[in-house]
Amino acid sequence: MLEVLYAVVLVAAVLAGYVLMVRFRVVAASGSAAGDVCAIVPARNEQASLPALLESLDRSSVPVRVLVIDDASTDATAALAREAGVEVISPGTPAPGWTGKAWACHVGANSTDAELLLFLDADTVLASGALGGIVDLHRRFGGLISVQPYHRVQRTYEQLSAYFNAVAVMASGVFASGVGRRPMAFGPCLLTSRDDYERAGGHAAVRGEILDDVELAAAYEKAGLSVHCVAGGSQIRMRSYPNGIRQLVAGWTKNMASGAAATDPRAGLATGLWICAHHLVAVNTLLAMWTADEALDAGIWLLAWVVFALQLRVILRRVGSFRWWTWALFPLPLLAFDLLFAISTVNTLRGSVRWRGRTVRLGA
């Protein structure tokens, strides 16, 4: 009876992994005229990442005005931006009840009269035709266009982000077939018209939210506006945690548990089933090989290991440049996911975490 239950869970999990990614879409390059676009880059201590973004915007096939909103950086962020020839704005201390990023985006939006507002995290990089592709999507769908960049990972510790990247995309439900209903958006790259931004309430509507991207999507839906999500693919990339494993831990624990609570219930349950099945396969395979009581059992679990590893490989190749061992030896990044998710849960219950030198309130 237990074997039958195992089989049902594993088959259902493989199908869930397929369904959650079956409509995976990436932004396509375009050289079409982009119109009046202003890129707003909230930046706090981003001297390591910002130059690559500014260089990529300078190479864009369509013109774009760039505003760097220097959020009280203590490094060379502002100086590097000025050296690159872009305008730097100091937003001042966030107003009461505002997060630093939401305040910076709000000030940036109020500092330009551009028709289209492009909000970019400082660690993103755009290919020359990426901006035209995003604008083409906006002309087609309107509302809020959201892009989840392809995660460029380099050092060994960065590979531990594997399950976080996969789960963030899968649990959003935006690429699922008949699953995701709750509006979702990815914060690193957002494009909207000024009219729609103001109609949805802008960042003032999400001023105190740690999950400002998710709540902004909800504000757009409440205003009767569409939210359309795509992946970055070869056009939009990011490198989130280049400064060491402590930055990675702080980044993922900042909002992972809160994000889990904000997902569409069906997409969240399907992703939870998928994650649980990975634990089931990892534990039972290792136990079967350790005890070696039944060669048949060990063989069956090894087969399940191969199936789940190969599916994970397909998913990870879509979301980032992860190495072979992250999927072949998936229990290793899975253990990192478990530990950091537990820390994130504790932080959410406690109500705060340190991020870029500030105490950030969680669970709002």
From TrEMBL:
The highest taxon in the source lineage is Bacteria
- Glycosyltransferase 2-like domain sequence ranges: 39-156
What are the TM regions of this chain, as residue ranges? Answer: 162-180, 272-292, 298-316, 328-346
Instruction: Say yes or no: keyword Translocase present.
Output: no
> PANTHER family under this entry?
GLYCOSYLTRANSFERASE (PTHR43646), SLR1566 PROTEIN (PTHR43646:SF3)
Question: What is the protein named?
Answer: 4,4'-diaponeurosporenoate glycosyltransferase
Q: Which GO terms describe its molecular function?
A: transferase activity
Pfam families of this UniProt entry?
A: Glycos_transf_2
Coiled-coil segments, which residues? none
Q: Does the keyword section mention Transferase?
A: yes
Listed A to Z, the keywords are:
Membrane, Transferase, Transmembrane, Transmembrane helix
